[in-house]
Design goal:
Blueprint lengths: L4 H18 L1 H10 L8 H7 L11 H12 L18 E2 L3 E8 L9 E8 L3 H28 L3 H15 L2 H14 L6 E2 L13 E5 L4 E2 L3 H6 L4 H19 L1 E3 L7 E3 L5 E3 L5 E3 L2 H15 L3 H10 L7 H19 L15 H12 L8 H20 L5 H15 L7 H5 L24 H14 L4 H16 L2 H41 L5
Parallel strand pairs: 4-9
Antiparallel strand pairs: 1-2, 2-3, 3-5, 6-8, 7-10, 8-9
Helix pairs in contact: 1-2, 1-3, 5-6, 9-14, 9-15, 10-11, 11-12, 12-13, 15-17, 15-18, 17-18
InterPro entries: ABC1_dom, Kinase-like_dom_sf, UbiB_kinase
Family: Belongs to the protein kinase superfamily. ADCK protein kinase family.
Protein name: ABC1 atypical kinase-like domain-containing protein
Length: about 525
Amino acid sequence: MQDDPARVQVRATQLREVATSLGPTFIKLAQFLANRPDVVRADYMDELMKLQDDVPPFSHDVAMQILKEDLNIKSLDEIFVPPFPTKPIAAASIGVVYRAMMHAPNDDSEPVEVAVKIQRPNLRSTILRDLWLFRYGAVRWLDGASRARLGCEASVVVDEFGRSLLRELDFNAEARSLAAFQANFEHDGEVVIPSLPFPQCNSPRVLIMSWVDGVRLTEVAAVRDAAIDVDRFISTGVRAGMTQLLEYGLFHGDPHPGNVFAMRDNGIAYIDFGNVSELSKEDQSALLDALIGCMNEDYVRLTKALQELGFLSDDEEVRQRVSDALRRVWIEVAGQGRFDAGALAEDFSFRKITDQFSKLMYDYPLRVPERFAIIIRTLLTQEGICMQLDPKFRFLNVAYPHVARMLLTDKLYTRRLADVLVKSPNAAADDDDDDVNAIAPGELDWARLWQLIGFARSGAGGGIFSLLPTMLKGAWAVFSDAWLLGRLVKAAALSAVNSVARGLRRILHGRGRRRGQQHDALTPAPA
């Protein structure tokens, strides 16, 4: 018997309100759980996600006292152009943000418009106390059930949450993350990262950034009124996200609509770098393996990649069961077994994948590592933003061209071309085992090659000349790598030989059918 949706909504709302009333640690816990499909049901996740940008502020007088203490000033007028605003423009679980003007160090310079982020009072001591209580409760009452359900102790999940939360409490660390993002996107004219105009004014509780004058994505109507090219903006946002994950390994972990701006030149701007996570090269490699497993319908490879990423234990029986389950989930979500962005089901979405994966968590010993919980939240949030702007948005349709270009041009990933273009022995069998046109394991998949080039062309803007640099880099990557070139040549040769064999089988198959038809025509009908 399923829960009544109305009752579930009431309970989820009550949970959100209770978390808000209990203070910042519980708000962050609710936000954390909103990104854990292995722990919380999808209907509760949706409600808890509202806490991302709907938190009451704290006392203005207290905020000003913290600001003066950390800047070592007696009056705000010493640094800021009066009057300093009396209300914050945003409030979150960690702190509040004011929009203000600061005097430039050189008196002859114009004042600088800034965002002033101030941490909530006594936050560290409050959070450390609550984390101790969480961990005590996890060890005492939940470790056994969690071990059976998730394959790890509940205290491990609490520790992941605690580490993530404590990182956010040091605004100096956030300033360093912001500077790293600036360096990564320094030469990208479409991605805007705020600067730190007065680094000497930053402290563990105060962070001053340049003001970003864009359109908040919480105001969808305003984005359209600003005559922003929605398709171009979406493509830029997805490219920036894929670049963070697969190239830099440093990604924004909280890109909800309040933290992302649409710029009037169709670029994208990020703010709030308190929740930034890193992916190791090993994680990036395994993540790409998982994607290639989906592309090739190779669910054995996909399951192995998930194991390397920490989603499941090293148990052969569990891996086989999970592999079969993943194939069923993919077919149900995508509408078929093929990873073909142009032929996905109309209602396909990353949200549907996570909802199905969430259900899978209840049947198998799967858990989501904290760094990938953040990635899931990032992708879900990004998809939600894009679907608000364009209801027909399909994440893979936009992401796949950027992945294709990376496979063709990034030296870190070009060797994976062999995995994409050569049919895997573990790939799902064709629906018609007697199909004389079906390619065999080890052959070069020419259709996939043209599809990859087509998507790379789409990501380059659609023109053949804009694709030329990508193709030249891809050709250079192949011909300069003897192992990759050898494998592709071998696969192409096998494909050529088998193509001739398939052609002969078609001829013989056609002759056999004609003879059968002639025999039937000459055989007299029974009396």
